[in-house]
Amino acid sequence: MLDIDVQLRRGRFERHVRIAEDARVLALTGPSGAGKTSVLNAIAGLVRPVSGRIAIDGRTLFDSAARIDVPTHRRRIGYVFQDARLFPHRDVRANLLYGRHGARGDVASFELDAVVDLLGIGHLLQRRPANLSGGEAQRVAIGRALLSQPAILMFDEPLSSLDQARREELIPWLQRVRDEVRLPMVYVSHTEDDVRRIAHAVHVLA
Ligand SMILES: Nc1ncnc2c1ncn2[C@@H]1O[C@H](COP(=O)(O)OP(=O)(O)OP(=O)(O)O)[C@@H](O)[C@H]1O
């Protein structure tokens, strides 16, 4: 499903990354500075590899030899960050609808009502982000990502800004998204516990 063979360079950081993984839900782990976020950003088209190839489910996003570099907005990436990055002056509903796309071709489309039900956020729709817990804000961020009609979901340490109790609350929602939307997922984390509970396979960037 995920086929990456790239040379990455970020300032003085340079490394070759090769990931060929059939598992639908892949965790990416490794020490701080190993390049986990850089790999996500390369998949998203936010960092351009020096050379190599990136494909998801057989769809080529980047191939330096073939001069393919699909622009970020056409890569259909749902990206969830450490912090929810919601617009503070808009309510939850407006945040969810920001960047929403309709159905594309024959691809199944995520609709607002279904996403709200999936993530249990119906009672939060009128609230501003300042009035959400960290875990609630992350559920809204996941909903926003789904409504952009992604072909893949990427999570960059989505639990790391939460305390232990909020982490425990969010994990079942992540499992629910994993099991019900059935998209490919790349899940970056430092911690073994959530990786074990969420991912089907683990790739360690040493
Ligand atoms: N814009 C940049 N300019 C220069 N160096 C960068 C830039 N972005 C990242 N780096 C460097 O690239 C390396 C990999 O960073 P990256 O954020 O991908 O690692 P990471 O594994 O995600 O780390 P962490 O777990 O701490 O988030 C680091 O050494 C970092 O300092």
From TrEMBL:
ABC transporter domain residues: 1-206
SMART domains found in the cross-reference section: AAA
One GO MF term: ATP binding
Keywords: ATP-binding, Nucleotide-binding
Keyword Nucleotide-binding part of the UniProt annotation: yes
Keyword Nucleotide-binding: yes
Protein name in UniProt: ATP-binding cassette domain-containing protein
Native organism: Luteimonas marina
